[in-house]
Design goal:
alpha/beta, TIM Barrel, 12 strands, 43% helix, two-stranded antiparallel sheet, 12 helices
Length: 341
């Protein structure tokens, strides 16, 4: 099977909302929700993609031949690439009933682990989503990151117990999901977290804790104060707030603010190729998350589709590093890219 065949099969398997586009840029789905689209006019998802496309890479082939070292370290573990699959929820609602959240997470975790990277798994109101995701992570030797929604503390504690039993090397919380209606209507209340509440959650985790949904330096400093080991610069794909800046626009200042702090910086939103991964690292990220294209890969080819997509990204990243004269991820910096002044 080729990746093109994966895309073609995915278009037959996906429901009425996602079009299985060759490039997932937010244009075909617009503000379509349910579905993979963004909130409001749908421009945040489009902007995420467009801003990476505006950045150009600086070619430099006046160097010795070399094989790029694409390995990435996160919390003492070495991964083959600085690429992680992002968490996705409600796949049956937004895509089609080929998968449930439970079966999708299982395929995702296996495929990613087989290619030497880790998947961030999704969460849902059905307790079985977290239970089966953490079981999949346990089968993969703890190579996965359970991502817990910002529920109230009682629910978070129950889900963390499942996560701990999986032997996961880290946990995450997508605090940017605070605007979702099923969280707003919970009793006791759920959603947004104060620094003190987040500190309690970080301490409960007992493993490195990642805060997803940081879009400002102020937010990054709050996450650091609460004890987060890493943040993910993310606007939830534009699904929770309209008219946000793109993640590429805010990443450099956030990465600069956290430089030397020990807090890792990851980023998602509109990253669709290995060239985009290179650009994100040049702007200060330690690694990237990609979410929606992994859904297409799974729907079009199951575990094999997931692996083919990772291999595609890896080949693009390796080629870009070779053509830009960067032997390792550490050599990728601001001078590796060109940005319009």
């Amino acid at each position: 099977m080729t990746y093109q065949e994966v895309l073609e099969k995915a278009r037959q398997q996906l429901g009425p909302y996602c079009k299985g586009c060759a490039v997932c840029n937010g244009r075909a789905c617009g503000n379509r929700m349910p579905g993979p689209g963004a909130k409001g006019v749908g421009d945040t998802a489009i902007r995420n993609y467009d801003k990476w496309a505006e950045i150009r890479v600086n070619m430099d082939t006046l160097c010795e031949n070399f094989v790029p070292d694409t390995r990435c370290e996160l919390f003492g573990r070495i991964f083959r690439y600085p690429i992680f699959a992002g968490p996705v929820g409600a796949v049956r609602l937004h895509y089609s009933d080929l998968y449930t959240d439970m079966t999708y997470n299982e395929v995702l975790v296996r495929g990613c682990a087989a290619e030497g990277i880790a998947a961030f798994t999704g969460d849902g109101s059905d307790p079985d989503v977290m239970r089966m995701a953490t079981q999949a992570i346990a089968k993969a030797g703890g190579i996965g990151v359970p991502t817990i929604k910002p529920w109230n503390l009682e629910v978070i504690r129950d889900k963390m117990d499942l996560a701990k039993a999986s032997g996961c090397f880290a946990m995450a919380m997508d605090v940017d999901a605070a605007g979702l209606p099923f969280l707003k209507n919970m009793e006791p209340p759920a959603g947004s977290k104060s620094v003190e509440e987040l500190r309690q959650i970080v301490e409960m985790a007992g493993v490195p804790f990642i805060v997803k949904g940081v879009m400002t330096v102020r937010g990054a400093m709050k996450a650091k104060e609460a004890g987060a080991a890493a943040i993910i610069v993310s606007n939830h794909g534009g699904r929770v707030l309209d008219q946000c800046p793109a993640t590429a626009e805010v990443l450099p200042e956030i990465a600069a603010a956290l430089k030397g702090s020990g807090v890792k910086v990851l980023v998602d939103g509109g990253i669709r190729s290995g060239v985009d991964v290179f650009k994100a690292l040049a702007l200060g990220a330690d690694g990237v998350l990609i979410a929606r294209p992994f859904v297409t890969a799974a729907y079009g080819g199951g575990e094999e589709g997931v692996r083919l997509y990772i291999q595609k990204l890896a080949a693009e990243l390796t080629d870009t590093m070779q053509m830009c004269g960067t032997r390792s991820l550490a050599e990728i910096g601001p001078d590796s890219v060109w940005m319009k002044k």
